[in-house]
Amino acid sequence: MQLTSPLKSLKPLLLGSVFILLAGCQSLNSTSELRGTGDLGVVVERATGSLALVDTSERKIIDRIEGLGDLSHASVKFSRDARYAFVFGRDGGLSKVDLLTGEITERVIQSGNSIGGAISQDGHYVAVANYEPGGVKIFESKNLQLVADIPATYQDENGNSQRSKTVGLVDVPGNNFVFSLFDAGEIWTLDMTTAEPEIQRYTDIGKQPYDSLISPNGRYYIAGLFGEDGLALLDLWHPEKGVERILPDYGRGEKRLPVYKMPHLEGWALAGDQAFFPAVGRHEVLVANTNDWSLAKRIPVHGQPVFVMSRPDERQVWVNFAHPDNDVVQVIDTRSGEVIKTLAPGKSILHMEFTPRGENVWISARDSDHIKVYDTETFEELATLPAGSPSGIFFTDRAHRIGL
């Protein structure tokens, strides 16, 4: 008579249990959609202090992340893997948001009033530009632990030490950051590759640098000047040359209009050897020759430009405007330099964002509480998405672009 081992007799039961457990796991997993982050983006909802998480291919809102504080002038940067969004709030809040779970994983109140930030080239550092107190703070991206506190100090005309608002903070190659001091009229570079952050100061660059841009290749840092006509350019390939003043005479002798909203230079349109940018206090888009930065053309537009943004293929430039002319968007053909289309997406247009290859553009209409999506070739309206006072729109392809 052959005896059966108790363990042997239990084996079929154990295997059956494993199969049941696996089936159960498969059943649970089938309800959770696996996705990449390349199709994702966020829209800032000022009214509710939240982000609308959007799918740019499906053209829909898929989630909302709340509890982000004052987002009245918020901006967003993305981690290298495009999974996390770093949100810079007007209340000094810095929040790290997981786009796949819809959760805030880290949040710190790091100042009284912040105005944007940047991610280092290697993705290790998050830098924040602060109005109050003026300066830049550097954090570890993985846990938002403070690494460095850089006060933006300068000597005023009476020889007293002051702190300046910092603006125009961007990342540049080499794990460096560059920013401007609004009150001091200076540009600083910040090297994060040394044991202690190393600062290089460029003084007397012009009155009140209010915003900046970095060229797509990371070479040229250009600060707009609110206190006078012209711009300040720093060639990061040849920093020994110092800061050069460009386009100093484009508005000399002309009367400015009242400025209701500062133009944003981050969205400068660089197309071939031309740069399209907003004229402060004028109903014009200015075109410069990037070979020598001379003024090549003025394009009359609907109002005072705020964002002047190039479609990824550089064939079009899209422009929105300051109050009271902020209910339309105009499209300029970069070949002819002429306005070819005027659209009315809603009330108080605040921001535009192109999908990575430029086939669509998303436009936020704050006072209409919606987002419009257009086909950039036909100008057909493709979608209208409800949102609470939407402003900034940010897509994850920014994670792989210098300065964005």
Please give a structural write-up.
The protein is mostly beta strands. Helix content is 6%, strand content 48%. The protein is built from one helix and 34 strands. The protein has a four-stranded antiparallel β-sheet with strand order 3-2-1-34, with no helix packed on it. It is globular, with a radius of gyration of 25 Å. It starts with 5 loop residues before the first helix and ends in a 9-residue tail after the last strand. 42% of the residues are buried.
Find the count of extended strands (DSSP E, 2+ residues). 34
**Main beta-sheet strand count, sense and barrel state:** 4 strands, antiparallel
Radius of gyration: 25 Å
DSSP strand (E) fraction?
over 45%
Q: What is the overall number of helices?
A: 1
Quaternary structure annotation: single chain
Strand order in the sheet with the most strands = 3-2-1-34
Unreliably modeled segments: 1-31
Distance between the termini: 79 Å
Q: Percent helix among the residues?
A: under 10%
Mean pLDDT: 87
User: Structural class, please?
Assistant: mainly beta
Shape: globular
